[in-house]
Amino acid sequence: MPVDVGELLVSDKPNRSNAVPLDGARLSGVVYIFAEAPADATIRSVDFFLDGRKVRTERFEPYDFNGGTASAANGFNVSRRLDRGRHTIDVVFKTTTGNVTTSATFRVPPSVCDLADRYEQRAEEAERLSNRLFDLADRTEDRASRRLLRDVARDLRQLSRFYEQQAREFERACDDGK
Length: 178
Known about the structure:
By secondary structure, the chain is an alpha+beta fold. Helices cover about 35% and strands about 30% of the residues.
């Protein structure tokens, strides 16, 4: 007969409804991660570890990875707070008869948060290049070359503004947990 070691679950709702096993999941945006204790165990506390680092201790049900209340878990924005790739959450249930451990591994794919960062970097690069071209134009004696350099510099500045706008939109989507 298998031993019940509890389970890590994840939901897309603060009330923890429609939860699925965390192990093997692909997560993005804001999620609600919680642990279900082993059946018939008297729990004294629950320690959560993320990628080997202790992040939280819960003493009362429900046992939420990011805290919360009986009716609502606090969300955890995996896209904002974790690098993309594989991550593991380990849980140690400290019971009256000893410790019981379970873990789950999940993936964080590239997200809109990554896109926000990339567009912000591109905006900065385009602005730097635009400034360099304006400086070069100011030092150029040939009128046609100076005009061409300024035209390209203006186009790059416009591109920089477009990238900044895209970065803000992706940032809002990231903050909204998408």
